[in-house]
Specification:
Blueprint: H1 10-21, H2 58-68, H3 72-82, E1 88-89, H4 96-109, E2 113-117, H5 136-150, E3 155-159, H6 163-168, H7 177-192, E4 197-202, H8 213-221, E5 229-232, H9 240-253, E6 258-262, E7 300-304, H10 327-335
Parallel strand pairs: 1-2, 2-3, 3-4, 4-5, 5-6, 6-7
Helix pairs in contact: 1-2, 2-3, 3-10, 4-5, 5-7, 7-8
């Protein structure tokens, strides 16, 4: 599961673009200087999408760098990512500054902010994205600061990818199950205290927990009854049709709860043949359907890019650490996209 993005300024990338152009092979995100971000104009979202496009994303900065280097064709392909709305994975230390910056931009553009809360204690069972809050008290403080920063902004929050499925599959130790479910339930209540916040608890994907009925009880213990619904396919590659069918089965057992589907990288489905870590930076994948709330399915509230395309799943297949920007992988996803 991905780590959080590290927001930096598009204006900063533009400011050094000509210098970078003189240095062949230095077009990665590490080339952008670290300085205070400049004010950016509101960014228009694509037609059919109510969600905010971040003009300071890694993809947007990479477009600026490649354009300055004369790599116009690659920059144009990468606009398939930079000009689409993606979820902001909120920092695990102080969530306030990143959320307030994004909320200000979304508000100015008249758009909805999409956020991912990913800081539950014992996160990712010690795997590529291990970490999270130090304990229950730290998590309560963090989610409180998260909710305070969102305030009255219009927002969609995807709450703790993997947290419930890792209980179901046994990856999270049994000693942590009760506390985790309680913390998730409290987080739903705290976030729903904001009048314009929608919350979706994560429910994995159809290739992970084959029997979706195993998720229903823990989802309700985690607060699904008070949430707006659940999320599917976060950071995975399962086709939309599989997600809709899987989600409908959960919904039927969950009193008609709606759901959202992550379509960020599922344009060509999962890696054929599966195999070890087939979910981790698999080659040959493509961007999926653009984010929209016009899904044509009454149970699917939105197709979202929850995983930020181009951010690594972890140090596998030559990738950087989880959550780090990987421009070559991003370009591959964009070049194979059908739209």
């Amino acid at each position: 599961m991905p780590g959080r993005p590290r927001p930096r300024s598009l204006a900063a990338a533009l400011g050094v673009a000509l210098l970078i152009a003189a240095a062949p092979g230095c077009g990665s995100e590490e080339s952008a200087p670290s300085r205070a971000p400049a004010e950016a104009p509101p960014e228009a979202a694509p037609a059919g999408s109510p969600y905010w496009v971040d003009p300071e994303s890694d993809a947007a900065r990479q477009v600026a760098v490649w354009e300055a280097q004369g790599r116009g064709g690659e920059a144009q392909l990468l606009r398939r990512i930079s000009e689409r709305p993606m979820a902001l994975w909120v920092p695990g230390d102080d969530p306030g500054p990143a959320i307030r910056r994004a909320a200000k931009g979304a508000g100015a553009a008249g758009r909805v902010l999409v956020l991912t809360a990913y800081n539950i204690p014992h996160r990712d069972c010690g795997q590529h994205s291990a970490g999270g809050a130090a304990g229950a008290t730290a998590y309560r403080d963090w989610i409180g600061a998260f909710a305070d920063a969102v305030g009255d902004a219009r927002a969609v929050v995807v709450l703790e990818p993997d947290a419930v499925p890792h209980i179901v599959d046994g990856c999270t130790q049994a000693a942590h199950h009760e506390e985790r479910l309680r913390l998730l339930s409290e987080a739903v209540t705290r976030l729903k205290g904001n009048r314009n916040t929608k919350v979706y608890l994560d429910a994995g994907n159809p290739a992970w927990i084959p029997d979706p009925m195993k998720l229903v009880e823990p989802l309700f213990k985690a607060g699904l009854g008070r949430a707006d619904g659940f999320s599917l396919n976060v950071s995975n590659f399962q086709p939309d049709a599989a997600g809709r069918e899987y989600g409908a089965r959960i919904s039927e057992a969950a009193h008609g709860k709606h759901f959202v589907i992550d379509t960020s990288r599922n344009g060509l489905g999962p890696l054929p043949g599966g195999g070890h870590e087939s979910w981790c930076n698999p080659p040959g994948r493509a961007l999926g359907a653009a984010p929209t709330d016009r899904t044509g399915d009454p149970l699917v509230d939105a197709y979202l890019w929850i995983k930020r395309p181009g951010e690594s799943d972890g140090p596998c297949r030559g990738g950087p650490a989880a959550g780090r920007w990987w421009p070559e992988y991003a370009l591959g996803l964009a070049s194979r996209a059908s739209q």
